[in-house]
UniProtKB/TrEMBL annotation, chains A, B:
Organism of provenance: Ramlibacter montanisoli
SMART domains: CoA_binding
InterPro entries: ATP-grasp, ATP_grasp_subdomain_1, CoA-bd, Ligase_CoA_dom, NAD(P)-bd_dom_sf, Succ_CoA_lig_flav_dom, Succinyl-CoA_synth-like
Gene Ontology molecular function, alphabetical: acetate-CoA ligase (ADP-forming) activity; ATP binding; metal ion binding
Family annotation (PANTHER family): COA BINDING DOMAIN CONTAINING PROTEIN, PEPTIDYL-LYSINE N-ACETYLTRANSFERASE PATZ
Family to which the UniProt record says this protein belongs: In the N-terminal section; belongs to the acetate CoA ligase alpha subunit family.
Keywords: ATP-binding, Nucleotide-binding
UniProt-recorded name of the protein: CoA-binding protein
PROSITE patterns for the chain: ATP_GRASP (PS50975)
Amino acid sequence: MANFQGDKQKVRAILDAVKKEGRDSLTAPEGKLVCDAYGINVPKEGVVSSAKEAGTLAGSMGFPVVMKIVSPDILHKTEAGGVIVGVKNADEAVTAYEQIIANAKKYKADARIVGVQVQQMIKGGTEVIVGAMTDDSFGKLVAFGMGGVLVEVLKDVTFRLAPATREDAASMLDGIQAAEMLKGVRGGKPVSREALQDVIVRVSQLVSDFPEISELDLNPIFASENGAIAADVRIVVNFDQKPARFRPDEKAVVTSMKRIMQPKAVAVVGASNEAGKIGNSVMKNLINGGYKGKIYPINPKDPEVMGLKAYKSVKDVPDEIDTAVFAVPAKFVASALKECGEKKIAGAILIPSGFGETGNIEGQEELQRIGREYNIRLMGPNIYGFYYTPSNLCATFCTAYDVKGSTALSSQSGGIGMAIIGFSRSAKMGVSAIVGLGNKSDIDEDDLLLFFEQDDNTKVIAQHCEDLKDGRAFAEVAKRVSKKKPVIVLKAGRTAMGAAAASHTGAVAGTDKIYDDVLRQSGVIRANSLRQMLELSRGVPILPTPKGENVVIITGAGGSGVLLSDACVDNGLKLFKPMPDDLDAAFRKFIPPFGAAGNPVDITGGEPPITYVNTVRLGLEDDRIHALILGYWHTIVTPPMVFARNMVEIVNEMKAKGKTKPVVASLAGDVEVEEAAQYLYENGIPAYAYSTELPVEVLGAKFKWARSAGLLK
Amino acid sequence: MANFQGDKQKVRAILDAVKKEGRDSLTAPEGKLVCDAYGINVPKEGVVSSAKEAGTLAGSMGFPVVMKIVSPDILHKTEAGGVIVGVKNADEAVTAYEQIIANAKKYKADARIVGVQVQQMIKGGTEVIVGAMTDDSFGKLVAFGMGGVLVEVLKDVTFRLAPATREDAASMLDGIQAAEMLKGVRGGKPVSREALQDVIVRVSQLVSDFPEISELDLNPIFASENGAIAADVRIVVNFDQKPARFRPDEKAVVTSMKRIMQPKAVAVVGASNEAGKIGNSVMKNLINGGYKGKIYPINPKDPEVMGLKAYKSVKDVPDEIDTAVFAVPAKFVASALKECGEKKIAGAILIPSGFGETGNIEGQEELQRIGREYNIRLMGPNIYGFYYTPSNLCATFCTAYDVKGSTALSSQSGGIGMAIIGFSRSAKMGVSAIVGLGNKSDIDEDDLLLFFEQDDNTKVIAQHCEDLKDGRAFAEVAKRVSKKKPVIVLKAGRTAMGAAAASHTGAVAGTDKIYDDVLRQSGVIRANSLRQMLELSRGVPILPTPKGENVVIITGAGGSGVLLSDACVDNGLKLFKPMPDDLDAAFRKFIPPFGAAGNPVDITGGEPPITYVNTVRLGLEDDRIHALILGYWHTIVTPPMVFARNMVEIVNEMKAKGKTKPVVASLAGDVEVEEAAQYLYENGIPAYAYSTELPVEVLGAKFKWARSAGLLK
């Protein structure tokens, strides 16, 4: 649905003319007409073809005016000496006309000169820029920034998918570093937010309505308290449109993904009795993992694999098969895949490498063609396979994994997949799924999102990716899914060096700022590092959703309180401050006179367990407090496990009374605090030894999600 | 030594006059004279006292001019309507004069009006700001930033201690976000770096020469390719100088600190036989920790404590005592401290709380007076004590600690101290010392720096602090020490919320940006979080110092390569790129054809140990490579411990051949990688499981140090 209805006929006519003339950009007057058609304010102007005319027209507009060459062959007008600003009277206009024509001829002798544009000069106001561009992965994007050096030097610009809503536009105005400038600085008046939102919405709708507009720049726009006028319009067109990427409809995706992830029968193409072979490992994992469906080994020679009857081809299997796991060399994949297609198998798990990642693009394209032809979805190639614990399904050559939980993870790279498995096992993090996506010839992050969206076994989705083949599709799905379940993304290749390295999976990463803005727009929580993705995957699902923004720190160590406060700011958490008098007094009742209420509530170091219990109970009881961060200090009076057990008890006691709030803990002490942290974590309180930042990062992520899903007051 | 010699007499005369008149700021003409005396360029100007005179003087300078009210009673001239810019001719100058006088009288009827300043108007150029200020902890600071919104909205400003050297000044020009603007944008010419360095050096010298100048602002300065002219000068003075903080000379500090940290005899004031008492824990730790010097329990009642003869007072002990550890309630501390003073004990370790942190400021000041009177240094109060492992000395009530190593850690807070102990023990991080500083009534971070500087047992110094009582002293010492040994600082209270929380030790944190800039200027590596301080403390000392900037990633997992590349950028490391052809070819010889040389060197996943060994050997052998980052991918072909042993072997083999380079590793795999990481770490290769960022942070810190210590080419 369009956010704004422009005059499409008018724009269509202009673009048709440009196309007919074989041009790839619009002249300034054409640009103005396009803006007019979409209600984007531009200065009064007209084109003249004589010096005298210039004087007359300028006079009718009011001075000063700016005069610019109009030529389809001169795109960089300033460079060509084709722009004269501050023309103050009719005489100057005449001279300026002659000068501009002379400069243009000198710059490019054969340039076709339409005339000279005379334009009302906009004075005052704050310079901003609104633009639009076309990204390979995300398609049409709209950009906003402050004019001049702030964009050029500080790259202070923000992007959203086009078309953008008014809310998107508002978030752009607030989303630049220099946002404060829009509120008026040095005694200036604030600019009209409405007017700027208007421009953003209209520009974004324009490029969405006309995909052939590949670039658009309104630079500068003069914004004031009364409105916004674009002083210069640049529009570049590209009539060679890339064909849209094929996407099955969402219902079809879910139907296929359900068969793949929750199959009644799995075939292993290349199943083997020989230890060390991938086809052997996959068989072992399926069997030892406890998968209860049927397993059909496919092997051209052996009549039996690991005690199960083997078949020469999937086509020989009498029953229906949902998922086929491939463990054959690359050269055998295509023909076996065709057979899977004929067998109406829903998905092929393509473990084999030797495709896109080794330069075998054709081989991979062949698989894609077969997949499309037979409507069989492809996972990979070049992957470790996948785990789906609710089905006890380990369709992988890695070791079996059985700690069930509610986080679904995926990785583009096998190495990162192994790190996910290792961390999960080590931290006893329950997972619902771990999926390898590899070369992403077909199934990608948004297919997984669609499946996990409707999967009741999954509460949090965490994805490592190096690129998004179809960023727009991902963003659209993620925006919906993230309202229901936290979506955490580790986008590798953030930096130019990283992006260059990402070529190992053929990934081509765009500007990271675009990823950053669009992921945020989609409600995605972006992880900064591998370990952070893992820690958030572990912690976010076990925390209850907060009901409001008021965070209170209760700490035995004042020093932890300081670092926890810093971490709150770093992670966008709001300390409940000032604490209401009655609450402050209530906390004070429990702590020594030299302790500090306020926030952090500093109960001081030498206190017995009851002081922690009393203050935490109060924090959980009082409805004005929405989350607690605990800072524990190891002492003889309150040993680590005593603290941990007391905290779990009081949190459970209050939960039974309907007081459910997120609680995290930072433990400072000798090595015994590690056991206490593990105990706390396993009982619903994400807790870390020797770290004041990790527990707050986890809590911050939960808040970020709750906020973007609209669950916080 | 002064970086610039100004005309001090001239400035002295002006300031004397200001002082005599009881003013707290200089008039514009006075400001100009001060600038003249220090060779800071200001526009031509003069003060007139009639409208006619204004026209004549302005004409002699050349138009346009700017005219400003001169009145000791009007500081905010613009607000008072006392500034008119762009005066274009003599007539306008006459009118402007009258207007300004009228406005000034309206603004403040009784304002003393000296006249109107007529000033040459500086056109064009880039607007910058140079200023100076006085900070409670750091003293005189010089500031630099771009003019206008960049400073006002984006707070893009950088600070250095005054006086600043030309090198400091250069680092300031490069140290702002908008540094590129100085190089010329939009086709503009670069500004003269020399001229700006000049202004910074001169301003910083001026405020250092005249401490009574509390604030100085040159705003704006118009910088061009030819020079820099300050268009406006504002100077605020404060003749009430705070007395300088007492500091014993460095030799005396070291003498005392050596006696304290390496004592021949230790007294425990309040030693006790009663388990659970602090005086009992301290005794146990001294004895069980293996301290070989003499231990004198001080106890008014018991004749023996833990089998050692006890004394009623330190004065009763027949021998010399170096260190006295206090384990008595606050109210008994002062009298016992006096006795320690009379006994000529070098230092008192004041474990007791109940002083500054509970509001008992007087009690703490009394201790400080006694300390100064008797020349006894005070550690604390309100601390856990300290460990110095080379002396097997555990002068603390916490558990004994005995893993010897070369990192000396300290913390302002007890909780953080406990986290240091726990982490150290858990990670088997060897330490030379762990010191609690608490309320820092006397001994502080720079005293520790001075001791550890000359302590051969210490290679790296890591300090947690919430404030620096004397930031300038710290910065000066750190600048020297950090050239020899890495100094890592975790400054808590970075944020406003954190700073507010820091009041628990009476800490008053200043602007974090000042800390950040000054710590960097001093060569300090700033840790972002508690865990990072601990990880850097563990990793930095075991890494050899790199000889150059060329970092190479060798990875089995392409996905790790991408994340490791991102981490390199995040941590200021330079990937050796493009790899020279011969080196690239040499790497290629060892890896499969579908692997990637370049950088990361992607050896691909399924390779045997020899591929890791061959590529790492090449990386260590070739002198063009200065550091290696390894990305390991867990496979059956190269299990984790096989990888780890092979890596340690090849690194040691090459070390024996004189090829010593820093190597770090990221391990992706199942839980067995944890054992491998520990093995690697213990053998000189900082390695982390499930993390691509931590090993690179450690390597980045080593490089940062080597760079600032001038050890890198």
